[in-house]
Design goal:
Order of helices and strands: HHEEHEEH
Number of helices: 4
Distance between the termini: 56 Å
Mean pLDDT: 95
Radius of gyration: 17 Å
Shape: elongated
Low-confidence stretches: none
Length: 119
């Protein structure tokens, strides 16, 4: 196994895979930022996740619950928070689905946040 991995490194296969992953993640970040542009979002341009800071009126738990009804699973900031005050934000994973499915899901995320904001 070590020999195979060393060959992959020497032949540039690993570097090629890394570049493909960066390009894919970049496309997904661009799509997410385009659809979610009305919200404050944080994420590395080549990461497979993005943080959305919710508007003051929206609560993360309600957004997560609403999205689960659409079979979209996102995380609140609570499991990631290191402070006693947990920000009202959600973390979206952008990988593991087709770009078409991701686009549909991102539109539902946007709609769910806007719905909760307007309550």
């Amino acid at each position: 196994m070590t020999s195979i991995v060393c060959d992959w490194l020497r032949e540039g296969y690993v570097a090629q895979l890394e570049e493909e992953k960066r390009r894919d993640a970049g496309q997904r970040q661009t799509l997410a930022r385009k659809i979610l542009q009305v919200f404050t979002c944080y994420g590395h341009p080549n990461a497979y996740f993005i943080w959305i800071v919710l508007p003051d009126e929206a609560r993360a738990e309600r957004v997560v619950k609403r999205l689960l009804q659409h079979r979209i699973s996102v995380s609140t900031a609570e499991p990631f928070s290191t402070s006693t005050t947990v920000p009202q934000a959600i973390r979206l994973a952008l990988g593991s689905v087709s770009l078409h499915d991701l686009q549909s899901a991102l539109i539902k995320v946007k709609e769910a946040i806007e719905y909760e904001k307007d309550l």
